Amino acid sequence: MMETNHSSEDGSPIFDNLDIDLVMQVLANTAFSPFFVFFIPIFYIFQGAKMDDRLVVLSFLYYVAISVFWFLKWYSKLYRNQGSLLMRPKPMEWSEEIVIVTGGASGIGELLANTLAVRNVTVVVLDVNPIVTENYNIAYYKCDVSKWEEVEAVSKKIIEEIGEPTILINNAGVVQGKLLVDLTAEDIQQTFGVNTLSHYWILKAFLPSLLKRKAGHIVTMSSALGMTGVAQMADYCASKAAVIGLHESLRYELDKRYQCPQIRTTLVCPGHVLTPMFKTVKFPNFPLFGFFCPSVQPVTVVKKIIAALDDQHSQTILLPFYTNFIPYIGHLPSFLRDFVQWVSGADYAMRDFVKISGRRPEEGSVSAELETKN
Known about the structure:
Elements: E1 6-7, E2 13-14, H1 20-28, H2 34-37, H3 39-46, H4 54-80, E3 98-102, H5 107-118, E4 122-127, E5 138-142, H6 148-161, E6 167-170, H7 185-213, E7 216-221, H8 234-257, E8 263-270, H9 287-292, H10 298-311, E9 315-319, H11 326-329, H12 334-344, H13 361-364, H14 366-371
Parallel strand pairs: 3-4, 3-6, 4-5, 6-7, 7-8, 8-9
Antiparallel strand pairs: 1-2
């Protein structure tokens, strides 16, 4: 696994920020950890408290509640994946995997491709621009994944020259950042072609290989904006919402119709990621905003995806922490919903947005991804 600290282009290390995500991570290993909480009633007993004392009883009940919560969460994952209560999946043989990464020439895709390559994985990058890498086990195929004809042709080439893929990572994405009436027909077609239709084309081309093996993993890159709507992102939000629906339907097709629960599916819905694509997005600058709604480093997303592949379980990745509440915002009373929207500044974040068209080397490199934090 990758290390916690990383360096930007100027050599300065990037550390975890003090935000709600770090606080929740600490709490998950202390106040919300069954192992940690187990010792609280024992501590009171050793201090002379009796078994029926209020503090002992309350701390024991808290321990039971925490244990039940984590058990249900754990069992839910096992049930979804038809896993064993006692045995975990066999360790993944990374050297035997062939991974397709769409949009792998820049941003999260580039960082993911290079990180997987370090694990001796055969990585195939599909992009309209070439990936800049020194890893010998990364193969690049020029392909506009929004077009079925190109995906169909390149898929046959990949299977013939490299082999049948075992992991599909649908990562390619674009953003226009325009108000609805300002979007051209070409803008809308590109957004849905890259953000939505490419997922269908990749699955149509490569899913038969996974079905034949009755194993594999499909990673769907969506967005927190796929679970809600904001101004100046109508096409983007809709395209990301569509792939969430695709992910859910695919899961049930694999389970119920293809009888292939061993093919895992992971949905990734990050909030704002510090990549060049969203470099000019503006957020509120009041002090607590960054604490409760932090931006995410690309390396954090990559670590989560690789951990999911290693885990070999279907799952949903929501990060940072606040994204867990987005699905429920739509159920709030309208005045509360509008208040949340106002506090987040989401409807004005794209006001000064400048689209980065094409891949510029100084922005597409891994170091530039990390540099965007500054």
